[in-house]
Specification:
By secondary structure, the protein is mainly alpha-helical. It folds into three domains: 2-121, 3-Layer(aba) Sandwich (Rossmann fold), CATH 3.40.50; 122-154 and 191-268, Serine Threonine Protein Phosphatase 5, Tetratricopeptide repeat; 271-436, DNA Cyclobutane Dipyrimidine Photolyase, subunit A, domain 3 (Orthogonal Bundle). It contains 19 helices and five strands. The protein has helices at 16-24, 35-38, 43-62, 74-85, 98-110, 140-149, 190-203, 208-211, 224-228, 234-244, 247-268, 290-298, 304-316, 321-334, 339-349, 355-365, 381-388, 393-398, 416-434; strands at residues 2-6, 27-33, 67-71, 90-93, 115-118. A five-stranded parallel beta sheet has the order 3-2-1-4-5, with helices on both faces. Helix 4 (74-85) packs parallel to helix 5 (98-110) and helix 11 crosses helix 16 (355-365). The chain is globular, with a radius of gyration of 23 Å. The two termini are 29 Å apart. Mean pLDDT is 95; it is low at 442-458. The structure holds flavin-adenine dinucleotide. Flavin-adenine dinucleotide (FAD) binds at residues 212, 220-224, 227-228, 252, 255-256, 258-259, 262, 320-321, 324-325, 328, 347, 350, 352-354, 357-358, 360-362, 365.
């Protein structure tokens, strides 16, 4: 018998680990509740993970299969499960965050030669899209050109039935915990995800390129929370969109390319968990002001667009990409809050919270050296609201006291104009002194570190 170790691939469709395991013979699935990840998560994210695990167990059961669950350190749980079940090999889809690589090295050391690693978390695996000289990309556009030219992955069907397996008498498949979420959760499981994909493709894809930028997030797919746990295959989603075709489809699939780019950046540069992508920006005069941080996090800055974003995120676990850029810019550039704390607190509120995409988003929006995002571009928060929420309906919904108007509804925690000047003066000083701010050159200054012990990553 073989074991399919599901991690960020809580699905049966297009799952290379599952397909390869079943080619080799009968197999059972396993999800490990890893305390290193769970203790660093939040009730909404744990609840979402448990519900999607339960949905996966049901999907297995409907096809005559078994999904086991166990709690504990994966490098202890896996060897134990293997000896209890008499497992031959373990099949798993590779993950590439610093913690995942640390975890998988430990598990591989505990089970020498018995794990088969496969690709499938991304469309193109982190580390696989390289410059002609073999180095990693740091700027999106050239990365995306290579990405679009790469060979399309082969899609895999979900199995119709699992072959029978005989589990040892009295073997306990394990209980999936239930945790109350502080927000309403979307329907869990791959059937719901595949259904939501089709609804998006039929109703919104053709105008995605025109409507994707609204603060209300109405023109977008809202599939990110399925992609993050691998409940939906990004490879399948891209294929379906490109089959339909058109400008909207191309733009949407390009966003999935951003997802791959995010994974690739973190793979090559795990330091971005702690340090600015271009570490010269670590020298900005960070302002560890607890009150300011709390006002930002709670949505009480007095600046309608910032407060609407943070209140919507707290209440729903979702925020449009435009909204994410706005609050990250406010926190990093205008408030100069230590970005690591903001990135972490922000990720905790997101249902789609994902180390790689969130870090990329914060480094990008904060002008910390990712891509060609210029450090000197500072959003005008009034204009952002006017342009991306014309009419103010979204503002009115989340900050009724603003009356839908983009101007501060009370004395703001920051004078936006003074804050902008303060940031620009500090950033220009660093840029003049060190040459920071020129894309694609800073990367060579710091050698990528090998994966390290990062308990708490996901
Ligand atoms: C500060 C900041 C933090 C972010 N944190 C996260 C995060 O923790 N998890 C996350 O999944 N995305 C994150 N993003 C990226 C993006 O905002 C979300 O993926 C997107 O808003 C999710 O909505 P959607 O599913 O409707 O996206 P759509 O517009 O429908 O796009 C389809 C898919 O493409 C991917 N995608 C879209 N935009 C991006 C992007 N800029 N970077 C990477 N992938 C992208 C997502 O998987 C998304 O589901 C962040 C962006 C910023 C600026």
């Amino acid at each position: 018998m073989n074991l399919i170790w599901h991690r960020a691939d809580l699905r049966l469709h297009d799952n290379p680990a599952l397909s390869e395991a079943l080619k080799a013979g009968p197999a059972v699935g396993l999800v490990v509740f890893d305390p290193n990840i769970l203790r660093n998560s939040t009730p909404r994210r744990r609840a979402w993970f448990f519900r999607n695990t339960a949905a996966l167990r049901e999907a297995y059961a409907r096809r005559g299969g078994t999904l086991l669950v166990r709690s504990g350190q994966p490098w202890e749980v896996l060897p134990q499960a293997i000896s209890e079940l008499g497992v031959n090999r373990v099949y798993a889809v590779r993950n590439s965050t610093p913690y995942a690589r640390y975890r998988d090295q430990k598990v591989a050391a505990a089970l020498p030669g018995r794990i088969v690693w496969l690709e499938g978390q991304y469309i193109h695996e982190p580390g696989s899209i390289l410059k002609p000289d073999g180095g990693p990309y740091t700027v999106f556009t050239p990365f995306s050109k290579r990405w679009w030219a790469a060979r399309e992955p082969v899609l895999l069907e979900a199995p119709a039935h699992f072959p029978d397996v005989t589990l040892p008498l009295g073997f306990n498949p394990g209980i999936i915990p239930e945790e109350a979420s502080d927000i309403p959760l979307p329907p869990a499981g791959e059937e719901a995800a595949l259904g939501a994909l089709e609804v998006f493709l039929q109703n919104k894809l053709s105008r995605y390129h025109q409507n994707r930028d609204g603060l209300a997030g109405e023109g977008v797919s809202r599939l990110s929370y399925y992609f993050t746990l691998g409940v939906l295959s990004p490879r399948l989603a891209a294929r379906r969109a490109l089959q339909i075709g058109g400008e909207g489809a191309r733009k949407w699939v390009n966003e999935l390319c951003w997802r791959d780019f995010s994974g690739d950046l973190l793979y090559h540069r795990p330091q971005m968990l702690h340090s600015a992508f271009d570490p010269r920006w670590d020298d900005l005069p960070w302002n560890d002001d607890r009150e300011l941080f709390a006002a930002w996090l709670q949505g009480h800055t007095g600046i309608p667009v910032v407060d609407a974003c943070m209140r919507e995120l707290r209440a729903t676990g979702f925020l449009s990409n435009r909204g994410r850029m706005v609050v990250a810019q406010f926190a990093v550039k205008l408030a100069l809050l230590p970005w690591q704390q903001c990135e972490r607190a922000f990720r905790d509120l997101l249902l789609d919270g994902d180390n790689a995409s969130n870090l990329q988003g914060w480094h990008w929006a904060g002008g910390l050296g990712v891509d060609a995002a210029p450090y000197f571009r500072v959003f005008n928060l009034i204009t952002q609201a006017k342009t991306h929420d014309p009419g103010g309906a979204w503002l009115r919904r989340w900050v009724p006291e603003s009356g839908g108007q983009p101007h501060p509804y009370k004395a703001p925690v920051l004078d936006l104009e003074l804050a902008r000047k303060r940031y620009l003066a500090a950033a220009e000083k660093i840029a003049r002194k060190t040459g920071a701010g020129v894309p694609d050159q800073s990367f060579q200054r710091v050698a990528p570190r090998p994966p390290e012990n990062e308990p708490g990553g996901s």
